[in-house]
Amino acid sequence: MSRLLILGSANADHVMNLEYLPSAGQTLMSRGYRLEHGGKGANQAVAAARLSQEGTRVDFICHLGQDAIGQAMAQAWQQDGIAPEGITYTDTQPTGTAMIFVGDNGENMIGVSAGANATLTPEALKAHYPLIDQADYLLMQLETPAVTVLDALQRAKAKGVTTILNPAPAMVIGKDLFRLVDVITPNETEAETITDIEVIDEQSAKLAAQMLHQLGPKTVIITLGKQGALLSSDKACVLVPGVEVDAIDTVAAGDTFNGALMVALGEGLSMQTAVEFAHRAAALSVTRQGAQRSIPYRHELAEV
């Protein structure tokens, strides 16, 4: 049985639909509002759980507030098959919150308040070391404290766990962290933040990938939106085409991609086949509104 572990954030997403994304100082009337279950870590955990085959265990290490939305999120995750052992409640902070604006073209702008996510410190992580020790793959993002991400990576590498880092949201972090990463999955903006190379096409993505390899990761996957994803490793450097669909909401697309990628790798698929699998899952997610409610189940991938 494959064991997949996600460590990361969980947020209550407050979503407004707008005709277009506002500019600085501009006020727009919303066409609709809804409250969603979100957070990059939680989205990726849900994607992994929904896309896994029977026999795969999915764990999620996160912190929630002692509030109704946190409890509702945890209940929904368990219904999707996420094991509850990694979920911790804190009474010092509310569940994390995100404010999301979505334009008619599917593009989005997001602001996040960490809340309980910030309490997932290295000290708090120690209680979850057994989950890291038993995992086959560990997937993380950057919406929890960077020191905790580093600590988890160090623990995972010491135990022989394959590590995947989705360096999102884009931010400047210590370069030493990358030495502990096996697979890194930035988008164009995140790749530029790390490498200072503007990524606009396949050629610039290759240059950024080379620099990322020098930092440590053996496998680099730079997602390029409609162009697909550049896969670079010691075996090959290829552009893996995406799946063309009519996008209406891209909020959880990257998270769906990452969760799906880990599932495919856990099933022993080649890296390129895993990227193709992840493309299909992400493509289906952008044809639906919402964060976790847009993430497909395994049987739905036959639609794309």
TrEMBL record:
Q: Which UniProt keywords apply?
A: ATP-binding, Carbohydrate metabolism, Cytoplasm, Kinase, Magnesium, Metal-binding, Nucleotide-binding, Potassium, Transferase
Subcellular location per UniProt equals: Cytoplasm
Subunit structure of this entry? Homodimer.
Q: Which PANTHER family match?
A: RIBOKINASE, SUGAR KINASE
The record's listing under NCBIfam families reads: D_ribokin_bact (TIGR02152), PRK11142.1 (NF008353)
Is the keyword Metal-binding in the record? yes
Q: Which residues form the Carbohydrate kinase PfkB domain?
A: 1-296
Q: What is the lineage of its organism?
A: Bacteria, Pseudomonadati, Pseudomonadota, Gammaproteobacteria, Alteromonadales
Record protein name field: Ribokinase
Which residues are the active-site ones?
A: 255 (proton acceptor)
Reaction(s) the record says it catalyses: D-ribose + ATP = D-ribose 5-phosphate + ADP + H(+)
Briefly state the protein's biological role.
Catalyzes the phosphorylation of ribose at O-5 in a reaction requiring ATP and magnesium. The resulting D-ribose-5-phosphate can then be used either for sythesis of nucleotides, histidine, and tryptophan, or as a component of the pentose phosphate pathway.
EC number(s) on file: 2.7.1.15
As for family, the record states: Belongs to the carbohydrate kinase PfkB family. Ribokinase subfamily.
For this protein, the record's SUPFAM superfamilies field holds: Ribokinase-like
The gene is: rbsK
